Amino acid sequence: MRVCDLCGEREAVYTDYSKGISLCSDCLMSSVRRRAWRVLEEELLPGDRIVVAHSGGKDSSLALLLTKEFADSHPEANLRIVSVTIDEGTFYRKASVELARRLAHELGVTHRTYGMEEIHGLSIEELDFALPDNWKRSPCTYCGVLRRQALNAVARELGATVVVTGHNLDDLVQTAVMNLSRGDVSALIKTLRHERRDDTGLVPRVRPLRMVYEREVATLVVARRIHAHLGKCPFTQGMRIGIRREIDDLEDEAPGTKLRALEMLSMLSKDLRSQVNLRRCRVCGEPTTTDVCKACQFKRELSEFLGRDLLGPLNLERVKKDREIVWTRS
Amino acid sequence: MRETIKVFLAGREVKLSPNTMLGELYPLLGMSKWSTLLLVNGRPKADDSYLEDGAVVTWLRITYHESPRERTR
What we know:
With 330 residues, chain A is of the alpha/beta class.
């Protein structure tokens, strides 16, 4: 049996190439918890009302678990947590919604699911059936934009002060490189920096897994049997897949590249001046950097194709009703 | 001293050297360890664990983003 290099007792389940050691499940969990809690200590404020964006996948499930542990071990901070799933309406999401509900229940956290169809008037499955193969965009492109907007609107209407997401180190390095390749400094800053501004309608993001490898997350979820869905979204396409492969190759050649890259980019981003001037979308009223937000631009082209009007404010009626009750139980 | 061990890889019996480590299977299978997690008898193990005779190795995709290069394999 290969024993853990830290405790010297239990069987090792993970090899950390950046440090050249192998760890058991308990020591890996302690290491991941330490990194995640450092982020939560730096970025959460006492009294924060936290919406955890909980798809039921491995990353958001571990983020919820670690955030709940953090809140429980800091009762003086009076942190309250609600787990929220945005259901895009795909067959893929059905299993993960159930696992999200189960984990939240096990942790004693209030869980709410809001449908993309309910909020935006269309589901990704409908798009997948309706759009021809040669359509200019994949359902994945629409999904990313509409899901992010729905999540922010739900968190805001629930009265959350922060949104915790499950973005891991691999996700963030990929996103940062994509932003760099597009020359999009504002998006780069948004990816790397935690900012609190009350006037924008944009709920600030906290990413506790930002210094945790995706591989560490997957190992922990399997080794500790955490309720989480480990499937691959069937709709995923785009620029990210190529960039991921190149970054992974670099990490193989020089272990720790991802950690060093994110640390360095985060340091540099502190000196960059944010060029983001947020305003309200002329069509839906959600925060945007342009006159009409990306979601409305997409919904306009889909309205023409589907032959029904998808434009206008988001339907957040059920969210508004939940506002008074969700925080009382967590 | 045995010259080979038998390992069940995706349901097929494969003969390997007795000092084969789990991590050595990633390149053999044409997989990236950053998008796949190899499991031994359903459990994760360190990549520098030696495989034992009769081990059942399966894998789990850990990323949502599939690379076009991997898709063709």
